[in-house]
Design goal:
This protein is mainly β. Helix content is 8%, strand content 46%.
Length: 159
């Protein structure tokens, strides 16, 4: 997992795939409409989705992870906490869904780390990173509008 200011993305990522993804984030209008599904940026190499939802308590979240795509998540409006968990030792509760590229795990009591996404900041979750989004910041629910970019893993990993 990597979390940083959007303005600093070049300190962590390079290459044409990452560049296209982050330039998209830098230029996405904050009033982009919500999408019912994933929208191609570059075929199945880069996809994105905009969504809006109220934040909730961590007890109402499930840990998810992916196999084929890396998630880049950034709030357009509002703030949300995202807990991070190493997939090592997590208890699987839903087998891998190949069509939607996700699997679910039971939420353990111990959190490996937490990041707060707010406008101007991003977080990146790789397949080894279990994560729970949509969580309260400061104990109060708020509405979050967020964009998630899916980066096909084979484009950013050697071999």
């Amino acid at each position: 997992m990597i979390a940083a200011k959007l303005a600093d993305w070049r300190q962590y990522f390079s290459g044409p795939t990452w560049t296209k993804a982050f330039e998209f984030l830098e230029n996405i209008p904050t009033d982009s409409p919500d999408d019912d599904g994933l929208v191609p940026i570059d075929g199945d190499k880069l996809l994105y989705r905009v969504m809006t939802y109220p934040t909730r308590g961590p007890e109402d979240t499930t840990v998810e992870a992916h196999e084929r795509y890396v998630d880049i998540q950034m709030s357009l409006e509002g703030s949300e906490a995202i807990d991070w968990f190493s997939r090592d030792g997590l208890k699987l509760i839903r087998a891998y869904d190949e069509a939607d590229d996700y699997l679910l795990f039971a939420r353990p009591e111990a959190v490996s780390g937490t990041v707060v996404n707010r406008p101007g900041y991003f977080s990146v979750f790789f397949p080894d990173d279990g994560h729970t989004a949509q969580q309260l910041v400061g104990g109060t629910s708020e509405t979050v509008r967020k964009v998630v970019i899916k980066v096909r893993l084979d484009l950013v990993q050697p071999g």
